[in-house]
TrEMBL record:
InterPro entries: Acyl_transf_WS/DGAT (IPR014292), O-acyltransferase_WSD1-like (IPR045034), O-acyltransferase_WSD1_C (IPR009721), O-acyltransferase_WSD1_N (IPR004255). GO terms for molecular function: acyltransferase activity. Pathway: Glycerolipid metabolism; triacylglycerol biosynthesis; Lipid metabolism. Residues 5-270 form the O-acyltransferase WSD1-like N-terminal domain. Pfam families: WS_DGAT_C (PF06974), WS_DGAT_cat (PF03007). It catalyses: an acyl-CoA + a 1,2-diacyl-sn-glycerol = a triacyl-sn-glycerol + CoA. Keywords: Acyltransferase, Glycerol metabolism, Lipid biosynthesis, Lipid metabolism, Transferase. Its EC number is 2.3.1.20. The keyword Acyltransferase applies. Belongs to the long-chain O-acyltransferase family. This is Diacylglycerol O-acyltransferase.
Length: 468
């Protein structure tokens, strides 16, 4: 039987455009150990782990005449050096130089003639640091058979995984005749797929979106519940072929202090901080939002299936990521009231769902937020961009240090993809005592993304210093 892409996986290939590549990424910064951690060491580490991820050695093979969805096939010309690349920053190697490079790397579509992932080893960072930038297509990450590369590469202190003992011999990919025969066989069993595939290839966006929503059944109710479009504003508009990126590091203790004072959750505080930052950013552009103004965020939340007893660490997607729509009160001038409104919005969503706790998600091995952010992007890709302004994906990470080989990870910034007509996507994660924000924006619409990044720190300080 052919290893055919699922309808959801294929949809991410069908709707991808040059200005909106459908891959998710991360920027991990490492302290170079005394024994060294160079490009060859990273190459060897990834090579050892690839046996756990067969999909990373497979490429997408289209079916002639689009009689069926594409299939996965071994890449007989697989070249690890092509996928794991090397680059360097000029002096002084500041973080803003790294983020500029990340923006340029992330806007480039992945080569569909090869497995749909890339990793970049970046040298030249100040303080004797190096960075690992990863890109993985949303069609690959399902949370069951395939997780994000960052989740597999990173380990806890003192823990070493045995290399996957195997001798990989690529299987010959199916020829055109075999692809047609398999497609006809599938069509006999599922005749509706032929027409469905023709519609997708024709890029019927409405049909494609409806199909995706049908596949992820839980999303249909979320979309149907919205009867009004998102508020208009600078966060929505045509997406250009350029990107800007900014990363922000804040202290987790500050969020915990505010949580203890207000009896809310750390997640509530994070979204209240982002609300305050967006408010200040709008003011920096000369806009004064009315008191009732909101920015609608699409927030994928991990929830349990109705018949699931507990969170499954074996298969993340066996649980569920539901796209929730949260109206952030950017018009509210009082930071305490902003937090109260956000906490109320979040509680309203959780009252009707079985949320996965942060503690449960932290039981997953490696750096699970990398995979969770990929799944969040998949969930977001199934929702019409007309009903939200910005994607915000938050996934808690471990509070102990993680390592890639001997190199300790000192920072991690998620890179979420932009959807059509979305100018900004925000990824958030906590790690080793800090909360990290990754702001990925359109280069034209979000040319001042650094201003918004600074506003996050100011909004946190404003909330922390508020008299309750």
């Amino acid at each position: 039987m052919p290893d055919r892409l699922s309808a959801l996986d294929a949809s991410f290939l069908y709707v991808e455009e040059p200005t909106t590549p459908m891959h998710v990424g991360s920027v991990a910064v490492f302290e170079r150990p005394r024994g060294g951690f160079d490009y060859d060491a990273l190459l060897a580490l990834i090579s050892q782990r690839l046996g756990y991820l067969p999909r990373y050695r497979q490429r997408v093979v289209p079916v002639p005449a689009h009689l069926a969805r594409p299939v996965w096939a071994d890449d007989v010309d697989f070249d690890l050096n092509y996928h794991v690349r090397r680059s360097a920053l000029p002096a002084p190697g500041a973080d803003d130089q790294l983020f500029e490079l990340v923006a340029r790397l992330m806007v480039r579509p992945l080569d569909r003639e090869r497995p749909l992932w890339e990793a970049y080893y970046i040298e030249g960072l100040a303080g004797d640091r190096v960075a690992l930038v990863t890109k993985t297509h949303q069609a690959m990450i399902d949370g069951v058979g395939t997780v994000d590369l960052a989740q597999l590469v990173l380990d806890g202190a003192g823990s070493e995984r045995d290399p996957f003992e195997h001798h990989w011999t690529p299987r010959r990919p199916p020829g055109r005749a075999q692809l047609v025969v398999d497609a006809i066989g599938d069509a006999v069993q599922r005749p509706g797929d032929v027409l469905d595939n023709a519609r997708q290839v024709a890029r019927d966006v409405v049909s494609s979106a409806e199909k995706t929503v049908r596949v992820v059944g839980s999303l249909a109710s979320a979309v149907r519940s919205v009867v009004r479009p998102a508020p208009s504003g600078p966060l929505n508009g045509p997406v250009s072929g350029g990107r800007v990126f900014a990363g922000v590091r804040t202290s987790l203790d500050d969020y915990r202090t505010i949580r203890a004072r207000r009896g809310c959750t750390v997640n509530d505080v994070i979204f209240a901080v982002l609300t305050g930052a967006l408010r200040q950013w709008l003011h920096s552009r000369g806009e004064t939002p009315p008191t009732s103004a909101t920015v609608r965020a699409l927030v994928p939340m991990a929830v349990l299936e109705p018949d699931t007893a507990e969170f499954s660490t074996a298969g993340l997607v066996g649980n569920r990521l539901e796209p929730c729509l949260v109206d952030l009160p950017v018009g509210e001038p009082d930071p305490a009231l902003r937090l109260q409104h956000v906490a109320h919005e979040m509680a309203a969503h959780l009252d009707t769902r079985r949320p996965v706790t942060a503690r449960a998600m932290l039981k997953v091995g490696g750096f699970a937020p990398a995979t969770m952010h990929s799944l969040a992007a998949r969930a977001a890709g199934s929702v019409s961009g007309r009903i939200f302004n910005v994607l915000i994906a938050n996934s808690p990470g471990p509070q102990e240090a993680l390592y890639a080989g001997p190199a300790r990870m000192s920072a991690i910034y998620p890179v979420m993809p932009l959807a059509r007509s979305q100018s900004l996507a925000i990824g958030v994660t906590s790690y080793h005592g800090n909360v990290y924000f990754g702001l990925n924006g359109d280069r034209k619409a979000m040319h001042d993304v650094n201003v918004l990044a600074e506003m996050i720190e100011e909004a946190l300080e404003e909330l922390r210093g508020t008299e309750w």
